[in-house]
Amino acid sequence: MVILLPEIKDKKPVLLLEETILLELDQIEMYIVDASYSSGTLYVTSRRLIWISDSNKGSYSISCRSIVIHGVSRLDENEKSSFPSCVVCQIENESELEPFCSIENNYVTVRFIPSNEDLLQEMYKAFSKAAELNPDPKNREDESSLSDNEYENENENDEQQVMLPKDAFENFMKKLEVNGQFEDPEEEDDEKN
């Protein structure tokens, strides 16, 4: 969710309870969709992305939980692009974002462009840490609804298993057995004596 004008004191964001700053970088240009919001200071916190304009053009706060995906977009020398290398985020479309996108679109693209491209990896790591600290509550509910047995089977990628009730397995094996072919050899020897 994007909130216009987060609480600011002395040109710094006022942090929420138990919120910490993971990264602070100056001279970061922000784009929402295709609109530039000039240069400002980016704060990646344990709960939000906060961008404060250097020229009083506004300030934005984005909840980490509303970030669907983030990544680094590098400008290819052979490719024409309207954006230089940056960190790109897809933000869930909320009512506050409707001026930036059409109603059919569920996401808004936000780009953070550093003045120095060497900062991209550091930015990406901070965004990733913030995402790790704010897991999607929908995913946690889905995982917690699985029983231990279902969870183990869901994580096995190499082979598919079919769980049969014990009775069904025993009946299946009895139908396959011909002339004691599945009996232990020792048992056959004991029967002959």
Automatic annotation (TrEMBL):
Residues 131-166, 174-193 are annotated as: Disordered. PROSITE patterns: GLUE (PS51495). Keywords: Cytoplasm, Nucleus. It comes from Anaeramoeba flamelloides. PANTHER family: CHLORIDE CONDUCTANCE REGULATORY PROTEIN ICLN, METHYLOSOME SUBUNIT PICLN. Residues 149-159, 183-193 have a biased composition (Acidic residues). Its main location: cytoplasm. This is Chloride conductance regulatory protein icln. It is found in: Cytoplasm; Nucleus. Residues 5-193 form the GLUE N-terminal domain. InterPro entries: GLUE_dom, ICln/Lot5/Saf5, PH-like_dom_sf.
